[in-house]
Amino acid sequence: MKTVEKEIGTILAGTISSITQRSIFSRMGGLAATPVHQLTASDRAAVMQELETSLRLFARSNSSQLIASCARVLNPVAGGGGPAPAVAVSAAGLSPKQFPIEQEKDIATARLEAWSEAVRLGLSKFASVKVATAVSELARNIVFYAGKGVVELRSLQDERGVTGLQIIASDQGPGIPAAQLDEIWAGTYKSQRGMGKGLIAVKKLVDDFQMDTRPGAGTTVTCLFRGEH
Amino acid sequence: MEQELPIIQIRNCLLVSIQTELHDRLALDLQAALMERVRAVNARGVILDVSGVEVIDSYITRILNDIGKSVRFMGAECYIVGIRPAVAMTLIEMGVELDSVSTALNLDLALEKLELLQ
Q1: Cβ–Cβ of A115/B55 closer than 8 Å?
Q2: A83 near A68, Cβ under 8 Å?
Q3: Is B89 in Cβ contact with A201 (below 8 Å)?
């Protein structure tokens, strides 16, 4: 049976000592003994995360190469060249849904849509509330600070089905000055209308968070909720 | 779109059931109205029922905390009741605090805590 331990072990042999390998696999819990083809998307993500952390630590120079090889083995269909990202999500998915955000009532609309999308994708009740809350925060930021913008929801799928929900909130507003960003991430930012904790809250809620903000040009926040088993 | 939230009096306690989207104007109106009523009826407590609220983000939290603070300044206690489990878990994960209000599972328990049900 092609278990995770066996398949990954073959790749790591010669680079990572068997003792270290054992400790890496034991940190994966039951997943190490699971056959590769039975892994769910979130299992794969968990295994890859563990491997990435450990290989960066133990393998030094050729860690990226090893990580890429591991990703290919765990995710044979998505394959192809280049190092696979930790979560191999294909953006093919279902067609993205866009919601213009211009006034406070749009926040409620976007939030509800996000909620129903999350439920439709099979996310748990708790995860769906998290999705709705994150969208609420991001849409509110658009209304409060940029005036108008767009929230986009994309469901991500691979050959096994839905793997997650991506939220992209973008605006052409004033952007966030660097000094203010420091305060925001430090949790010391005080806003007039809210708590000043919206972005930091979103970052804590989601599985992946990226922000591109340019003073004068606008802000785009991209975040990802992974599907659950 | 003029609207205001009805404030119901139960003995010397005020109850507001939040069933609608809170925004700046509505929240400030509610805060002012509650403070007036607390003074007018010597209310011991204010109870905000959020069981109909499916998502509480940091902005709504700020509003609830602000109302709680102002009610406390008046000498009454502010209870939030009916927070849904998923909402509570989300608030914890976000790291935002509902620290200017007390909480109770439901209206009955809040009234009990305010010693109105004896």
Answers
A1: yes
A2: yes
A3: no
Judge residue A148's burial from the number of C-beta atoms within 10 Å of its C-beta, 0-12 exposed, 13-18 middle, 19 or more buried: middle
- Whose structure tokens read 């096994």? A160
Q: What are phi and psi of B8, to 5 degrees?
A: -105, 140
Tell me phi and psi for residue B110, to 5 degrees: -65, -45
Report whether B100 contacts B62 (CB < 8 A).
no
CA distance to partner chain A, nearest, from residue B38 (Å): 25
Q: List CB contacts of A107: < 8 A, sequence separation 6 or more.
A: A101, A136, A139, A140, A143, B21
As a whole number of angstroms, the distance between CA A171 and CA A163 comes to: 26
Residues of A with CB under 8 A from a CB of B: 104-105, 107-108, 111, 115, 125-126, 128-130, 132-133, 136-137, 140, 193-195, 197-198, 200-202, 204-205
Residues A131 and B90 sit within 8 Å (Cβ to Cβ) = no
CB contact B24 to A (< 8 Å): yes
CA-based nearest residue to A226, from A177, A161, A176, A173: A161
Per-residue pLDDT tens digits for A115-127: 989 988 888 889 9
ipTM of the modeled complex? 0.89
The pTM assigned to this predicted structure is: 0.70
Contact B42, B12 (CB under 8 A): yes
Q: Tell me the C-alpha distance between A12 and A101, whole Å.
A: 49
Q: How far apart are CA B78 and CA B66, in angstroms?
A: 10
Tokens representing A178?
């660097």
pLDDT in tens, A51-63: 887 787 777 667 7
Q: List CB contacts (< 8 A) between A140 and chain B.
A: 57, 59
